[in-house]
Amino acid sequence: DIVMTQSPDSLAVSLGERATINCKSSQSVLYSSNNKNYLAWYQQKPGQPPKLLIYWASTRESGVPDRFSGSGSGTDFTLTISSLQAEDVAVYYCQQYYSTLSYTFGQGTKLEIK
Amino acid sequence: EVQLVESGGGLVQPGRSLRLSCTASGFTFGDYAMSWVRQAPGKGLEWVGFIRSKAYGGTTEYAASVQGRFTISRDDSKSIAYLQMDSLKTEDTAVYYCARVKQGTQGAFDIWGQGTMVTVSS
């Protein structure tokens, strides 16, 4: 299985400041034939199901505010929130969908307000 | 409105079986692969398995932790996906979500249900 490791486990950022969450995969999730990274980011607020934010590592899902952006390729990826809002408090997960035999999630990063 | 609603959760003894349902509405269910994801209390997300659309053979894949015990199926005429869980263990206790696979992505989940709780305990 591809192991996804996020850092940090938790993060406190002031309102209006930038938040950065990292995700590293144990093997590349870049598919050479189409040059796409099979990597998604989700946001989960307490008591709610996850919400898709980003897919193909950097494509924002429809309706997601543009302060959310994804970057990276191969094995190293980043989710950036450019200006933290109060409603962004949540747990964030990365997920690889490169291996159709076993999709895997990172352990999650808890984002709080400082 | 595009929606997924899970049902069938509850308290079950170890070794017993349970079947979860995921009822879809607001989209052409048969065109989409569907997946199940679970979350143990206070823990992270764990992918359970998925079923491809009939156009891609309707085949299934499972996580190693449930392989041979869980079975995913679908009834496109009713817009329902099922998760049959046999030989349940205490470590299967979790909220079980069904999720739609975003078309063209192979495995990003764009629509999620609210989840149904499964508790395995004697």
TrEMBL record, chain A:
GO cellular component: extracellular region; immunoglobulin complex
SMART domains listed in its UniProt record: IG (SM00409), IGv (SM00406)
An example Gene Ontology biological process: adaptive immune response
Lineage top rank: taxon: Eukaryota
Keyword flag Lipid biosynthesis: no
Protein's UniProt keywords contain Nuclease: no
Alphabetized UniProt keyword annotations: Adaptive immunity, Disulfide bond, Immunity, Immunoglobulin, Immunoglobulin domain
Domain named Ig-like: residues: 1-95
Protein name: IG c1014_light_IGKV4-1_IGKJ2
